[in-house]
Write a structure and sequence with these properties.
single chain, three-stranded antiparallel beta sheet, 9 helices, globular
């Protein structure tokens, strides 16, 4: 709900949340530091510039689970947006190429349906595989030591996309009329196999990468064992397995980049940024 240079944010309580972290940006980049952390379900943001479009993100504090954060947290945010008169709701989901037998993917599809039925102006982003996840520390990549880890044989093309590109699409969607009430399938700017990503990383950094390969069968066994105890690891492994399914990558440069004026982050650009960060 807006006023003169102020915005009153109100949202529904999430039973498991002990606090709420509020983030805000007027660009395509985010700060890792929240604007404010509150224990109530409202916040008045003052001293703003009238007429400026901003993106607001909420993050729950408290028990961390897929149901609490990705499902109930997202649905609570959607309800708060409807109650607060938000002009447009942008939701980041996952690529439609992934199977919904993964709990994380199933929750994303449930929230997508709720967004479409909310009565708000909406945009749903369905990005492909994040470079920062599938070729990052969480997946076993170490750019400082020139080490990579691949799932399977590394010969399945995958549409890698940068988190920064997705943020740029989210920002563009707020002012682009073609984004209203539309699902944007965001394939990356280049379809690469795991082996190709390793080759690019070595070429950019001037030194070959050593590669550790995780057989698909081993990943499935690990997921079955770990799943009942750690749903986050299970979801991540499920995403990795899903990306290894054949025929999921686009064959041409995605027109979305041209339509929404987003400058693509190529995999080589990502490698350079990671080398500069010392990761």
């Amino acid at each position: 709900m807006g006023g003169n240079r102020t915005v009153q944010l109100n949202w529904g309580a999430v039973a498991t949340a002990t606090s709420y972290r509020v983030y805000r940006t007027t660009t395509s980049t985010w700060s890792s530091t929240p604007l404010v952390t509150v224990s109530t379900t409202s916040y008045k943001n003052s001293n703003l510039t009238n007429g400026t479009t901003a993106v607001v993100l909420f993050q729950l504090g408290g028990p961390d689970s897929l149901d609490a954060v990705d499902r109930r947290g997202s649905l609570a945010l959607l309800a708060a947006a409807a109650q607060g008169g938000v002009q447009q709701f942008v939701y980041t989901s996952v690529t439609p190429a992934l199977p919904s037998n993964n709990q994380f993917v199933a929750i994303k599809r449930e929230v997508e349906a709720a967004v479409r039925a909310s009565g708000l102006r909406w945009t749903i982003l369905q990005p492909a595989a994040f470079m920062e996840v599938h070729a990052g520390p969480v997946a076993g990549w170490d750019f400082g030591r020139h080490r990579a880890r691949l799932v399977g044989r590394g010969d399945t093309p995958v549409d890698f996309i940068s988190i920064h590109d997705v943020a740029a699409f989210a920002t563009a969607a707020l002012t682009h009329p073609a984004a209203v009430n539309r699902t944007l399938v965001l394939n990356g700017p280049e379809a690469l196999t795991g082996n190709q990503t390793v080759e690019i990383a070595g070429r950019v950094l001037g030194r070959p990468f050593s590669v550790q390969r995780a057989p698909l069968a081993a990943i499935r066994v690990i997921r079955a064992i770990v799943g009942p105890f750690n749903e986050h690891v299970s979801a991540l492994l499920g995403l990795m397995l899903g990306q290894e399914e054949p025929a999921t990558a686009a064959s041409a440069f995605p027109p979305m980049y041209v339509e929404f004026g987003v400058t693509p982050t190529m995999f080589a650009d990502y490698v350079r940024s990671q080398a500069g960060s010392g990761r």
